[in-house]
Amino acid sequence: MSSILSSSQFGKDFKWGVAISAAQNEGAYLTDGRGLSVWDTFSKRNGKIKDSSKPSVSVDFYHRYKDDLMLVKALGFTVFRFSISWSRILPDGMGRVNKEGIAFYHKLIDECLKLELTPVITLYHWDLPQALEKEGGWTSHQLLKWFSRFVTVCCDEFGPKVKYWIVLNEPMGFTSLGYGIGKHAPGKTGLNNFFAAVHNAVLAQAEGGRLVKKIVKHAHVGTAFSCSEVFPKTNDDADIKAANLTDILLNRLFIEPSLGRGYPHDGFALMDKLNVYTKSWKYTDRMQFNFDFIGLQNYFALTVKHNPIIPYIGISEVTAKSRKVPHTDMGWEINPQSFYRMIKRFWHYGGVKELWITEGGACFKDELKNGIVDDARRTAYFQQYLQAALKAKQEGVNLGAYLAWTLTDNFEWAEGYKTRFGLVHVDFKTQLRTVKNSGYWWRDFLSK
Ligand code: NOJ
Questions:
Q1: Residues 6+ apart with CB under 8 A from 309
Q2: What tens digit of pLDDT does each residue of 296-352 get?
Q3: Of 316, 329, 393, 426, whose CB count within 10 A is highest?
């Protein structure tokens, strides 16, 4: 691989940005008429969040957005990805629109435009209004109706100012963690909940795309998928089968229906649960949407083995730590070559017009000492992953953007505040922001 000297190697039209999300950054959970989200409720339950914390204040982006956008600008990024809190816009999920919530996002977008930062809106980043969860949330047939209304309100309001839209953030993340294994909000479990949520998310992603296109003239619309290359622990048939099923779930479940291929199956009986939906309701057409771009978020490569004691799927992970391979402080395997292969794989599906890296980043235990956070491992991580992205781009992949995760340390879901992904350190008691060395590295990289 040629070595990365400057961002200009990606070409002058390449988009460089940082990403955040409403539930992880905004705080102000009861301010100006906002309704509760599933994360407000879930985080109150004992033992659900590792450090027993809540997203109620978080990094107070709601009040500090101007300062935080100045940081985005100072680091040299030109794109800012954020999500819209559904319960700020529609406190009851449906019905009444909260004018103050709308006003906040107008102010945020206006500030971006003033600073010449291109706003990218994520419509759904995991924070369903609690009022809708009471009615079944993502497992309910009503979801599509609720979501369409939310999307319509957002497009009507912000469409005239915003060109770039991402419909869903990591649908596999919120359906599996939130409705399958209950580790995330709303904490539901079981295959029936999981597959119902998957099906509604597949429909919502396509329907959301259609609505944005219809309402926002000249919109460039995508959706963002998590992806992980999956390896079997051994060459035994059982492990290979385990890896193939994991691959279907982690990498194919959402993109294939959106490309018009229906749900992946490959002889796995488990997947019959989804094909039941498409056979009886003839939804295959509605699951398809021709996105302008597909967002990829590749945080780790995964090794799995057959494990009969694990319910439903009979698969467990073989951790990076136990295999003694490089990993972040989340325990996630660092493997830039695998990232490169995933970019190529999604590109070679055919039918994908453009790829964006809508998130990329790493968690390390940072220490603030004498006003400095020397996070050399995070910088090295970005260097290796950008090198891999550049290689894919130079080999012909239409790669349009890289958005770093994330601007500031923030609420990392069930991990709470102990895990830090930011380019900017936050003292959660005082809200003091300190740019980490990785942030300075980005500034230098983007200036060349
Ligand atoms: C992907 C999710 O979109 C984001 O919310 C999360 O913080 C990062 N992964 C890191 O876990």
A1: none
A2: 999 999 999 999 999 889 999 999 999 999 999 999 999 999 999 999 999 999 899
A3: 426
Give me the pLDDT at residue 1, please.
46
User: For the residues of 200-231, what is the DSSP string, one character each?
Assistant: HHHHHHHHHHHHHHHHSTT-EEEEEEE---EE
Contact at 8 Å (CB) between 95 and 86? no
Atom of ligand 1 nearest to the CA of 421: 10
- The answer to whether residue 367 is catalytic is no
Ligand 1 center–CA 405 separation, angstroms: 8
Domains, the chain, with CATH or none? 7-446 (3.20.20.80)
Distance CA 251, CA 217 (A): 31
Q: Whose CA is nearest to atom 10 of ligand 1?
A: 412
Closest ligand 1 atom to Cα of 406? 7
What is the model's pTM?
0.98
- Is there a catalytic annotation at residue 116? no
Instruction: Tell me, in angstroms, the distance from the centre of ligand 1 to residue 347's CA.
Output: 22
